[in-house]
Amino acid sequence: MAILAWLHNAYGRDLIDGIRAALPGEDIREWPEAGDPDAIDICIVFRMPHGFLKPFRNLALMSATGAGIDHYLLDPDFPRGIRMVRIVDHDFASRMADYVLAWTLFHHRDVAHFLAAQKRREWAYKIMRSAREVRVGVMGLGQMGRLAAERLAGVGYDTAAWSRSRHEVPGVACFAGAEGFGPFLARSEILINLLPLTPTTRGILSAATFAGMPPGGVVISAGRGGHLVEADLAAALRQGTLRAATIDAFPVEPLPADSPLWDTPNLTVTPHCSSTASLRTIVDTFAENVRRFRAGAALLNEVDTLAGY
């Protein structure tokens, strides 16, 4: 049997070379050189179009290259009977919290104002509020959302969080469920999205959500592209409903060169880079799962494909 790999190009050849070195006895093939599809029983795939896995009738194990698996499961042809694992880097949440804190500070301190003033050669003094005067809201209280909320609160921000079910986080005002969403939005002048993508969260970054925030709010999204209604975001920024936004994930990636979002005022685009697994973690975790799978042992970070996590 054989392994098919379709990997992130950000690591260059180092990732596939690392996997080959860690699994010297395996037949490892790189897409699109898959060979006989019936020989493939394991896949490790970064991103794939819907229906990609259909030719591989003997596929038994699917590995993501990161922690997020929702975009795989949204494929209507995803073979639900196979086993699936993900890569969990213990530094994931810390890297995400760094991203969230960096952009929260950027918008709170209105760095864009000073950058624009410098281009105009203008000494544009501006009074700044302290962190405790800025109300920040985090959507999602999984591992990443919780640490991000804790870090923001630790810096001194007036921090709240919203999730599907009730949580308690010291120093963070927690809201839950449909009944808590409106009050949460109403106090979130900087709204941070770290939700998983589910049928209920798809399109949540919409005109209705933006309108529920204080006027001139800011959105920072490091969740999934399916959360974003692009036209609503662009309209909110043009109309002043939102003052600014930083978006890391889009419905179509890479963001097409002709997308109007590139030129939308007060929008910062980052290329889905908020938090990534290290090359070493991907190689070691995947190789260990292959060895365990071949031996019939319990897998690391196995996903319940029916539950979606």
From TrEMBL:
<keyword id="KW-0520">NAD</keyword>
<dbReference type="InterPro" id="IPR036291">
    <property type="entry name" value="NAD(P)-bd_dom_sf"/>
</dbReference>
<protein>
    <submittedName>
        <fullName>Glyoxylate/hydroxypyruvate reductase A</fullName>
        <ecNumber>1.1.1.79</ecNumber>
        <ecNumber>1.1.1.81</ecNumber>
    </submittedName>
</protein>
<dbReference type="InterPro" id="IPR006140">
    <property type="entry name" value="D-isomer_DH_NAD-bd"/>
</dbReference>
<dbReference type="GO" id="GO:0030267">
    <property type="term" value="F:glyoxylate reductase (NADPH) activity"/>
</dbReference>
<feature type="domain" description="D-isomer specific 2-hydroxyacid dehydrogenase NAD-binding">
    <location>
        <begin position="104"/>
        <end position="274"/>
    </location>
</feature>
<keyword id="KW-0560">Oxidoreductase</keyword>
<dbReference type="Pfam" id="PF02826">
    <property type="entry name" value="2-Hacid_dh_C"/>
</dbReference>
<dbReference type="GO" id="GO:0016618">
    <property type="term" value="F:hydroxypyruvate reductase [NAD(P)H] activity"/>
</dbReference>
<dbReference type="InterPro" id="IPR002204">
    <property type="entry name" value="3-OH-isobutyrate_DH-rel_CS"/>
</dbReference>
